[in-house]
C-alpha cells in the first residue's frame, strides 16, 4: 500500500547511496529505489540508517514478503557492490540505425549506420556509438582526475567503480560527482539512439576540456580558449574533437 510520505532529503539519499555503493544491496544492480527497511507507515521517518537500496525486482519481492526483511537487513550491512571493485553491469537498450550525441548547449554529433566518436583523449575514445551486425552499441570511458577509470560502458554494458564519491541514476539521467558540486559526468540516455551529455570534465596534461549545459569548452596554457555551443556534425569523420600531446584538434571545425 502506498503511503503519503515526506520527501527524503538529497543529503540523506546521497549518504544511503554511498553506504550501499550505488546498487541494490542484494544484487548490485545500479537501477534502484530507496527502501525503508522498517515500514515507513510504522516509523514515519526517513532515518538514514533505516534506508537501503533495492532494485525494482527485489523491492517488489520485499513488498510481497517473498524476500524476508531480515535478508534485506543483512544485505544492507554487506551490500553486494561493497564486496566487488566494480558494480554489477546494467545493459542499455540502444537500437536502430541512427545515433546522436548532444554535448552541452546545442552541439550535435550524428551518424547513420556508422561509427561515431565525438571525443578522443590521449587514445581514449571517451564516447562512442558503434553500429555492428545490425546493433547500435554505446561505449564510454570516464576517468577521474588521477586518470583512474571510474565509469565505463562497453557495448551497452554499464559498470562503475564502487569507490566513486557519488553516482546517482534517476530515470534516464546518470550523474557522477567527485564532490558536492563537482561534476565529472552527467548524461541522459534517450533510447533508441541518443545520448545528451550535460556535464563532462576531462583533463589531459595542462589542458582541460569540459562540457556544461552551455557547450564544450577547452582551456589550457598555450591553447586558445575555445567554446563550442551550436556545432552540428554529421557522420563521416573519424574523431570530431581530439586532445593529445599534439594539442587540441577538431575535424571539420573552425575554432
Ligand atoms: Zn536487486
Please provide a written account of the structure.
It is a single chain. The protein has 255 residues and is mainly beta. The protein folds into 2 domains: 10-83, no CATH class; 90-254, no CATH class. It is built from 4 helices and 20 strands. It has helices spanning 10-20, 40-43, 56-63, 69-77, and strands spanning 33-36, 51-54, 90-91, 98-103, 108-112, 116-121, 124-132, 135-143, 149-154, 157-160, 166-170, 173-179, 182-190, 194-204, 207-212, 215-219, 226-228, 232-234, 241-244, 247-250. The strands form 3 sheets. Strands 4, 5, 11, 12, 13, 14, 15, 16, 17 and 18 form a 10-stranded mixed β-sheet that branches. An 8-stranded mixed β-sheet has the order 3-10-9-8-7-6-19-20, with no helix packed on it. It has a two-stranded antiparallel sheet with strand order 1-2. The longest helix has 11 residues, at 10-20. It is elongated, with a radius of gyration of 20 Å. The relative contact order is 0.14. Bound molecules: zinc ion. Zinc ion binds at residues 24, 26-27, 29, 54-55, 57-58.
Topology:
Blueprint: H1 10-20, E1 33-36, H2 40-43, E2 51-54, H3 56-63, H4 69-77, E3 90-91, E4 98-103, E5 108-112, E6 116-121, E7 124-132, E8 135-143, E9 149-154, E10 157-160, E11 166-170, E12 173-179, E13 182-190, E14 194-204, E15 207-212, E16 215-219, E17 226-228, E18 232-234, E19 241-244, E20 247-250
The site of zinc ion has 8 residues, from α3.
Amino acid at each position: 500500500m502506498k503511503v503519503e510520505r515526506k520527501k527524503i532529503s538529497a543529503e540523506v539519499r546521497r549518504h544511503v547511496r554511498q553506504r550501499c555503493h550505488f546498487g541494490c544491496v542484494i544484487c548490485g544492480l545500479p537501477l534502484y529505489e530507496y527502501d525503508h527497511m522498517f515500514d515507513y507507515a510504522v516509523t514515519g521517518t526517513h532515518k538514514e540508517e533505516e534506508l537501503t537500496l533495492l532494485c525494482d525486482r527485489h523491492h517488489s519481492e520485499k513488498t510481497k514478503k517473498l524476500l524476508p526483511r531480515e535478508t534485506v537487513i543483512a544485505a544492507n550491512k554487506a551490500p553486494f557492490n561493497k564486496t566487488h571493485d566494480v558494480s554489477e553491469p546494467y545493459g542499455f537498450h540502444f537500437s536502430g540505425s541512427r545515433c546522436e550525441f548532444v554535448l552541452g548547449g546545442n552541439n550535435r554529433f550524428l551518424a547513420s549506420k556508422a561509427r561515431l566518436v565525438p571525443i578522443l583523449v590521449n587514445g581514449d575514445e571517451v564516447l562512442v556509438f558503434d553500429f555492428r551486425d545490425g546493433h547500435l552499441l554505446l561505449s564510454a570511458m570516464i576517468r577521474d582526475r588521477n586518470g583512474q577509470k571510474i565509469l565505463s560502458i562497453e557495448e551497452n554494458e554499464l559498470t562503475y567503480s564502487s569507490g566513486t564519491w557519488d553516482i546517482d541514476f534517476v530515470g534516464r539521467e546518470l550523474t557522477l560527482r567527485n564532490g558536492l558540486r563537482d561534476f565529472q559526468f552527467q548524461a541522459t540516455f534517450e533510447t533508441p539512439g541518443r545520448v545528451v551529455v550535460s556535464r563532462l570534465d576531462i583533463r589531459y596534461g595542462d589542458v582541460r576540456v569540459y562540457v556544461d549545459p552551455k557547450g564544450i569548452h577547452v582551456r589550457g596554457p598555450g591553447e586558445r580558449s575555445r567554446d563550442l555551443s551550436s556545432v552540428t556534425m554529421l557522420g563521416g569523420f573519424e574523431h570530431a574533437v581530439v586532445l593529445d600531446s599534439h594539442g587540441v584538434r577538431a575535424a571539420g571545425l573552425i575554432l
